[in-house]
């Protein structure tokens, strides 16, 4: 692909959330805010505007997302000088690569030069997406929803096993609405969604048996954001984005860039083509996913050096068996059966769940 081409379409608007466990190389900190202020100081020196979120200020700061935000959403261990940090980017536009790629690389340079950065299993990378030219239309969002359901198991094949069964990125395909219907029935149901709010609810309908229901004391199924593809913002009046929550923690700038490109290219293709192109009677393969991500990269005129990052995600991808165990609400007896089956196959329980179960 010729990366020198210009593309006159606006592409997508996006933001990225990078969760990490961070330790300062030069200072001991008593709390998260102290550590976050040090990160901000280093970012400001690199001319990257940054701010530490707090309850009284976050609402105002996040209205425009003109600065990076340091947020505390992960457990910390002050005794070891380790703090969970979520770095929330400012708003970027995919076509303005001259701006967001250098800024992301510089952000990571700041982190790696002044801090020890740990990408633990509790951390993840989230990408928020919306059309650059205006709000989501129902037809475009429906295309993304169908892509998310159709390719879910293929996308699982790109992820480490713990991201298949993490309750903070649960399955859209096997949610409380779509656990029973087959793929053609799901596509028909998505086509019947009459509004963005209706579509968001169908995609993110959470089971009353889930850990989230126990935490929030819900006794019935309900809408919740912690799905692989979070469309709950489509049900609200605030900034309406679609959030891709499944990627693991970024270990470096290349990881962050790769997941942004993957989410943006697939979403770009799906929003324009998936509604007509996908056949729910077919079983997709990883090669199909690769082709469609490539199509999204083509219309977005992604340069060759960035294409290499996408190809890296697919290089170690592996097809997975269809999941058959729902971990939500599983009894002790059912879990013992899983342990027995895992032992019979010569696997650890965690590996068995990653291959054959879902949240």
Number of strands: 13
Helix content: 40-55%
Class from helix and strand fractions: alpha+beta
Order of helices and strands: EHEHEEEHEEHHHHEHEEEHHHEHHE
The outline comes out as globular
Main β sheet profile: 9 strands, mixed
How large is the radius of gyration? 20 Å
Mean pLDDT: 92
Number of helices: 13
Termini Cα gap: 39 Å
Strand content: 5-15%
Number of domains: 2
Contiguous runs where pLDDT drops below 50 for at least 5 residues = 1-8, 58-62
Features:
single chain, 359 residues, alpha+beta, GMP Synthetase, Chain A, domain 3, 2 domains, nine-stranded mixed sheet, two-stranded antiparallel sheet, 13 helices, 13 strands, 42% helix, disordered N terminus
Structure description:
- This protein is of the alpha+beta class and 359 residues long.
- The protein has 13 helices and 13 strands.
- It has helices at residues 32-45, 58-61, 97-114, 138-150, 152-156, 183-191, 196-203, 211-216, 253-277, 286-299, 304-315, 332-344, 349-356; strands at residues 12-24, 50-52, 68-71, 83-88, 92-93, 115-118, 125-131, 205-206, 222-223, 229-230, 242-244, 325-326, 357-358.
- Strands 1, 2, 3, 4, 5, 6, 7, 10 and 11 form a nine-stranded mixed sheet that branches.
- Strand 2 (50-52), helix 2 (58-61) and strand 3 (68-71) form a beta-alpha-beta unit.
- Helix 4 (138-150) crosses helix 9.
- The longest helix has 25 residues, at 253-277.
- Mean pLDDT is 92; it is low at 1-8 and 58-62.
């Amino acid at each position: 692909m010729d990366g020198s081409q210009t593309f006159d379409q606006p592409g997508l608007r996006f933001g990225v959330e990078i969760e990490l466990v961070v330790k300062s190389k030069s200072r001991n900190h008593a709390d998260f805010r102290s550590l976050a202020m040090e990160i901000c100081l280093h970012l400001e020196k690199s001319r990257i505007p940054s701010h530490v979120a707090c309850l009284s200020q976050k609402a105002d700061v996040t209205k425009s997302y003109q600065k990076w935000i340091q947020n505390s959403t992960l457990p910390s261990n002050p005794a070891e000088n380790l703090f969970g940090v979520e770095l929330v980017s400012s708003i970027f536009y995919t076509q303005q690569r001259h701006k967001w790629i250098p800024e992301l690389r510089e952000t990571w340079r700041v982190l790696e030069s002044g801090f020890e950065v740990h990408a633990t299993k509790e951390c993840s990378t989230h990408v928020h997406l919306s059309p650059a030219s205006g709000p989501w239309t129902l037809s475009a969002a429906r295309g993304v929803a169908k892509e998310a359901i159709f390719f879910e198991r293929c996308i699982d094949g790109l992820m480490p096993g713990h991201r298949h069964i993490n309750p903070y990125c649960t399955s859209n395909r096997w949610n409380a609405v779509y656990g029973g219907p087959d793929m053609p029935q799901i596509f028909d149901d998505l086509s019947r969604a009459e509004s963005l709010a209706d579509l968001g609810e169908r995609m993110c309908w959470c089971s009353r048996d889930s850990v989230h229901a126990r935490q929030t004391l819900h006794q019935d199924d309900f809408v919740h954001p912690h799905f692989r593809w979070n469309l709950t913002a489509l049900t609200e009046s605030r900034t309406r984005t679609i959030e891709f929550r499944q990627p693991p923690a970024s270990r470096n700038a290349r990881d962050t860039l790769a997941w942004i490109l993957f989410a943006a290219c697939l979403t770009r293709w799906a929003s324009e083509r998936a509604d007509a192109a996908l056949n729910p009677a077919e079983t997709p393969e990883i090669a199909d996913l690769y082709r469609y991500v490539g199509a999204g990269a083509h219309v977005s005129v992604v340069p060759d050096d960035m294409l290499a990052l996408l190809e890296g995600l697919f290089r170690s991808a592996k097809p997975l068996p269809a999941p058959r165990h729902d971990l939500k609400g599983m009894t002790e007896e059912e879990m013992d059966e899983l342990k027995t089956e895992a032992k019979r196959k010569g696997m650890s329980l965690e590996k068995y769940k990653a291959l054959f179960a879902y949240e």
